[in-house]
Amino acid sequence: MNYLISQYDAVKTRVDNAQSRSPYGQQCTLIAVSKTHPAQELKVLYDHGCRIFGENKVQELVEKYEVLPKDIQWHLIGHLQRNKVKYIIDKVEMIHSVDSLRLAEEISKEAVKHQRTVKILLEVNVAGEESKFGYTPEEVLAEVPSIAALDGIEVCGLMTIAPFVENAEENRGFFAKLRQLSVDIMQKNIDNVSMNVLSMGMTGDFEVAIEEGATMVRVGTAIFGARDYSQRVK
Can you give the pLDDT at residue 226? Predict the structure, then answer.
């Protein structure tokens, strides 16, 4: 599985190069998104030095958590149902996809129960796609104070999933809008809100996202490769 190492290193180089082009001078963390890929592939990257992995689904995160080293930082990046919060509350470094006050309240309840503080990001549907979860920019501005007042959570920033496009430049405006939204929220000086994290950019557009201020990018396909569905097409 040496191809995993070379692909991971290639993405790291692209992240570093994009950072050098960004006018914001931020450090960007690469999250290796391992959805649908087996734990042994993650172990290859772990042995190479990678400690930060992202999963979309709760069950998959839990299964991999159980069999992989415990110093891995797990990021839950997919849509999270309230009834599944209890399964990951003691396992994740950060939850990227908080898209309602009710979900934040459930995270708070479980975090208090486990006597820990959970880092969260608020998911914003910047592009207004009907198929995507997330707050509108207006909704998130209104709801941040209520979420920040909850016990057991720390509001660290914002996350977005940009549209799937062939040309990454088409998403630059959405990334810029999320960064500006984070500035607007930060200027409100709300207790327990830092806006230090901008989680935006995936395999197809992460370099543009970094240029626009991303501090975390979620990259799966460029590291692990795509699943082969060709046999299903007859």
Answer: 79
What distance in Å separates the CA atoms of residue 161 and residue 154, rounded to the nearest whole number?
A: 21
State if pTM tops 0.90. Answer: yes
Angle between helices 39-48 and 58-67 (to 10 degrees): 60
Residue 191 DSSP class: T
With beta carbons less than 8 A apart as the criterion, state whether 111 and 120 touch.
no
DSSP 8-state secondary structure symbol assigned to residue 124: B
Sign of the dihedral defined by the CA atoms of residues 68, 159, 126, 13, in that order: negative
- Residue 28 forms part of a structural domain: no
Q: What is the pLDDT of residues 133-174, one digit of tens each?
A: 999 999 999 999 999 999 999 999 999 999 999 999 999 999
Distance CA 121, CA 136 (A): 14
Q: Which residues span the domain enclosing 185? A: 36-196
Task: Please check whether residue 227 lies inside any domain of the structure.
Answer: no
Number of other CB atoms surrounding residue 199 within 10 Å: 27
Pairing outcome for strands 216-219 and 73-76: unpaired
C-alpha radius of gyration, the chain, whole number: 17
Residue 208: enclosing H or E segment and its boundaries? helix 206-211
> What's the total number of domains in the chain?
1
Give me the helix-helix angle, 101-113 and 137-148, nearest 10°: 30
Nearest Cα to 147, choosing from 183, 200, 95? Answer: 95
**Separation CA 23–CA 34 (nearest Å):** 30
What's the average model confidence in pLDDT over 92-113? 98
**CATH code where residue 162 lies:** 3.20.20.10
Q: Considering the domain boundaries, does residue 115 fall inside one?
A: yes
Contact present, 195 and 186 (Cβ < 8 Å): yes
